[in-house]
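Quick entry between incubations.
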Amino acid sequence: MNSPALSAHIRKEFAAAGPQRFALDVSLEVPAGITILFGASGAGKTTLLDCLAGLARPEEGRIAVGDELLFDAETEIDLSPQRRRVAYVFQMLALFPHLTVEQNAGYGLASFPSAERRARVLEILKSFRIAHLRRRKPDEISGGERQRTALARSLVTSPRLLLLDEPFSALDAVTKSSLIADLRAWNAERRIPILYVTHSREEVFALGEHVIALENGRILAQGTPQEVLDAPHRERMAQLAGFENIFDARILELHEGHGTMLARIDGGEAALEIPLGDAMPGEQIRIAIRAGDILLANEAPHGLSARNILPGTIAALEPRGTLVEATVDCGARFLAHVTPGACQSLGLAPGQRAWLIVKTHSCHLV
Amino acid sequence: MNFAALWLSLRLAAWVSAILLLIGLPLAYWITYSRWRWKFLVESVVALPLVLPPTVLGFYVLVALGPRSPLGRVWQSAFGHGFAFTFTGLVVASVLYSLPFAVQPLAASFSRVDRKLLDASALLGASRPRSFFRVILPLSMPGLVTALVLSFAHTLGEFGVVLMVGGNIPGVTRTISIAIYDDVQALAYTDAGWTALVLLVVSFVVLSFVYAINRRVWTLWPAK
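Done. Structure below.
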């Protein structure tokens, strides 16, 4: 299915807090599905969303969804927020406190006859599992239910683009993942581009089919999570994301009694025991490990509590300031950080055998 | 106790509050959301009656709408009589005099409405008027009540402007505060005392009502 993608070029000076001022200057393509917009606070994420929604006006640029032009500095097209059909869920949600859940959800359907409006509202409330709360006000429901209300209110208007500005940052992991599952289900038929802003490292690789990394108003890298990590900015990206090692893997078996599950990294035989998560054998998952959480040994270690001991070969050693980054080939390539002292006393050298030691709980399911 | 004067004052206060609401809503909206750089001038003009002696305000109103001014001549030809010493004249002068008491609570409560709610409203396709009536106004109800009650109470208690513009015509322009003044001049202290007591009680009840529903909207007192 050929769904209209968001394509934007935006240049805007923005007043950041603090002494540095920089311009937002980005070109991005957001295909249908969830794209993660990732960056530290002050990177320009919210300014970018405001420009897309029409709440802020870029100095230069062009914003289009499919063939529909929302903004063009050259021809001076600048659709008002009312006419953009862009749904935007703010971090603070901005639910109308004096209206019920149902009235909030129906707010954007003013032009519909009331019977049809009620039917549409009920349908969206059902698909976000909050139909039973429809007579309540926002301050009478839980945080997760408020997020669901805000999503329902935005999505019921059939937007052509959805912007989410860290709306789920306050939710616990379980609530968040069920909410995202519902969002994905809603978008499965509609296939609109969804730009999901986060500064949470865990969310970056968990959600997106597509990632855009923003730093100081510029795009550092964009593409699939794997492409972004393999980009020339890999080091910076890893630093931003906090994980130097990201692996696609398939679950082999669950060890419920041990609270773990075994997963094999794609493209090799290396298998890792990882914390038991909400997954089934055969399912495709993604594992993230910090390079600093991996131990290196120059002989097969014994008597350790760590569940994962992987034999491999040192492919490269690269000094980086106060640490040495070792690339170890265990069927998959791992990056491990050791101190220069440890590197010397272990006598590590490229081509040598080495054992990687990874605690189960250092393996993050993302 | 002068019931004709009390009735006149209540009628005047009701008219003034109603008119002030109609003028105050758009004016407060403009003051809250306009980004015009000279906006402070308009704010100052609206606030003038707070500091100006009522006699000064009354004097200017009298001159501006008197038979020798262009405005006064228009008035004369439209209504067939002069502006001064009529009930309508009182209403016009009182509206000006109580303007800040309506506009300030309204503007204060408008500005307390989270701008994000207005952004959300716009993104959901709502026009500015719709955002105003569906979001700003319902969330500004305490300010609206405060504005109404304060303009009512302030008009009820005014003296100087009424005296300048209205004079002292029983049943037409003799309001309750003027009646008290008259009684005192005539050494009728008992009458003056009763009328004053009624005014005191009414004012106290009205203010208690305002502060009971919301003390943050407009108050002389520091926020709790």
